[in-house]
Amino acid sequence: MSEKKIELIAQLLAKAEQTTPEEAEALTEHAERLMVKYAIDQAVIDERRAKKGGESEKIIQVRMDFTGVYRGEMINLGSNVVNGLGTLRALQNTGGNGKVFSLFLIGFESDVQQAQILINSLQVQSAVAVGAWWKLNKATYSMDNSYAQEKARRSFVHGFGSGAGNRIFLSREKVVQESATGTELVLVSRKSKVDERVASLSAGKARSRNATGRDGAAMHGYKAGQNANTGGKSMTQGRGISA
Known about the structure:
Elements (H helix, E strand, L loop, with lengths): L2 H14 L4 H31 L7 E9 L3 H15 L3 E5 L6 E9 H29 L8 H33 L4 H18 L15 H11 L17
Antiparallel strand pairs: 1-3, 2-3
Helix pairs in contact: 1-2, 2-5, 2-6, 3-4, 3-5, 4-5, 4-7, 5-7
């Protein structure tokens, strides 16, 4: 994705952050659909270039590390973004001392770039969302111990990631349906090449974790994630949730 296109999306999101919720939702959806559309256009261009004997985009691998209390939920968020986009793969590593969880993004360069933008943006948004939710719902958990309260916040963030991923997936499905005939086959071909690369890698086994995200807090987070800004540059500079 070109810097010009990223800037256009950033402008939409910047406006969405300073307007009414109704207008913000429309602007956010527009930005999201642009990100998906540009990714699909790139896939089609790359496929045509390859058929003519030209050099196609390279498949790359990028590592994203997550630390702090919400590191597991950030792994979930990242995986949901990858699943929503549909043309790349993610491998997880939660081994070692357990303090750093790593997500390896594997895909064509432009797809990986898009996934990074989305994940970084959604990290920041999830931090804002869980803070706002906890402010309104803290009294509900006032009789619980600190561990239970932390688990509730983690469930919210887990749900947030799932909701955002589902929104990206549905947006992508709609853009594909509106695209030219054969677009879906191009995307399937692109994904199969990434799958072949992943199959050639020797990935270590990830440590199993106790799942969060199956309670009322998760449902609130899921709804917040569906309303999140799922694309752009204006929110990628923050650190997100790290503690």
